[in-house]
Write a structure and sequence with these properties.
By secondary structure, the protein is an alpha/beta fold. It has two domains: about 60 residues, DNA polymerase, domain 1 (Orthogonal Bundle), CATH 1.10.150; about 90 residues, no CATH class. The strands form three sheets. Strands 3-4-5-6-9 form a five-stranded mixed sheet, covered by helices on one side. A two-stranded parallel ribbon has the order 1-2. It has a two-stranded antiparallel sheet with strand order 7-8. Helix 1 packs across helix 2. The longest helix is centred in the last third of the chain and has 19 residues. The mean pLDDT is about 90.
Length: about 160
């Protein structure tokens, strides 16, 4: 029976440092990988170009990097972008980019489903199932920021949580 790999982004920086020292490497590798995951947005271990190939293979053998996928995008004439976002477990949440003349705001889901009943929100139609993991929230922000830069030529200026 094969052991299921853990999502590496569920580890703290200290846990990453410990993983490397327990596997005969230097603790600073944990800092390096953490930066790739959270600052540089690595989507695979091969993206980590300043990490040696054998080390990347060790990471590949032990971990996964789960990412969200934008399943459906709707763009409004006012520039608003609404995304249906599929999580690694198949559940779907919503994120929205709302531009104005002076700022761009990301509305990101923090839960699957919701206990509120807002008419405009697709998430409100779903029964509340679970809170999102930090990496799932982070990925929504990265995706919306990319859309803001693509469609409005500016980064996000605000983030609100649904």
């Amino acid at each position: 029976m094969q052991m299921e790999k853990k999502d590496i982004r569920a580890l703290t920086k200290e846990e990453l440092r410990d993983f490397f020292t327990e596997n005969g490497d230097k603790a600073f590798r944990g800092n390096q990988v953490y930066e790739w995951l959270w600052s540089k947005g690595a989507h695979s271990f091969d993206d980590m170009t300043n990490v040696a190939k054998p080390t990347r293979q060790m990471l590949e053998n032990n971990f996964v990097i789960n990412h969200i996928h934008v399943d459906q995008m709707q763009r409004s004439t006012d520039g608003t972008v609404k995304n249906a976002v599929r999580l690694h477990d198949g559940l779907v949440v919503e994120s929205v980019l709302i531009p104005t003349n002076t700022r761009t705001t990301a509305c990101v889901s923090s839960q699957v489903g919701c206990s509120l009943d807002c008419n405009f929100c697709a998430t409100a139609r779903l029964k509340r199932m679970r809170n999102l993991n930090p990496d799932e929230i982070y990925d929504q922000v990265v995706a919306i920021d990319s859309e803001s830069r693509l469609y409005h030529n500016r980064p996000l200026s605000n983030i609100v949580f649904m």
